[in-house]
Amino acid sequence: IGDFLKAVVMYQDHVDLTQTVTASSACKKVIDVPAAPDSLTAKAGDKQVVLNWQTPDDHGSAITVYQYRYNIESTQTWPGWTNINGSTAATITYTVSGLTNENEHYFEVRAVNAAGAGEARRVTGKPDSTSNPAPTLSGPTTVTFAENDTVAVGSYTAYDQDDDSLTWSLDGTDKAFFELGTGTAKRPLQFNNAPNFEQPPAGGDNTYKVTVKVSDGGKAAQVAVTVTVADADDEGVVSLSPTTPQVGETLTATLEDEDRALKVTRWRWFTRADSDSAVETLLQETEHPTGLSETLVMTPLYLGLQLKAQVSYTDTFGTQTEASDYSSAVVFPPNRSPTLSGTDSTGVAENTTAVATYTANDPDGDTIT
Q1: pTM, full prediction
Q2: Are residues 246 and 330 in contact, defined by beta-carbon separation less than 8 angstroms?
Q3: Measured between alpha carbons, how far is 166 from 348 in angstroms, rounded to an integer?
Q4: Nearest CA-CA partner of 191 in 204, 173, 210
């Protein structure tokens, strides 16, 4: 088996000459069906059995597929053979699932090559619910999480004493707001997006319910987690309108902070030459103003300068803090058209020179011709 054969014949014909003839067809390799799989074992699990074997001798032709079949009683009529999908010569394991626990099962495995199906090897296995211990999962069940944070909510550790491959997943009412990080035995639970205490999800109340789960394909473990998002001191900002002020306009600065109980203690206005300038000149300040906005009328004195609005305030956390923002350089408004008023139809008496009076006005104060 496995050798190549060539036919050679020596003979004499009627002229008594010795002749030699070699087979004209190609030499043939001798092959046979594969041997039975070596060292076939069955590892019982919950409603399943894992079959393992060693690669048998292929007897001169590569193994193309493995086949299996099983029976509950060895004396019963055996079913037909089933190909192990995707199997090749390198395949050495297969899991038969959907079995009935507490029943002894008989399994046979054989290899197939170009010569046909080889001899089968038989083994027994008895699946039961205790032969596959459930995996374990540990991690925090109650978490208080500061808003706007991007760290993990908690870390969860899984263990399977059979070293089965584990599949991780999330469940629960609020699972859509979370994701699991990467890892095999340990994974972090984290928000998809940093939560905002002042703007919880529609219908939400800053309390999230999510369940972390692992499964070995037969049994599972889970940890139900309650995450409570806590209020944190948000950073305030100042918004300016318009962002490019014009001479004659009013520039309005407004404090925006998601925290509650805002109380402004002082507004200040500064000028600077440009964004590269480190020199700021204080224009005016207002102590203990009312409301969250402050205004400043743009005069020609500010032309070409950038204006800074700075506010000092406290919020529900009681800490004195500041926020500020710069405008673009103050500019003149664009040239506006002059206006002209007067009658467009009139009667004129003879022997007079005056027809009507017309009045012109330029909103920018430009000279009119």
Answers
A1: 0.55
A2: yes
A3: 103
A4: 210
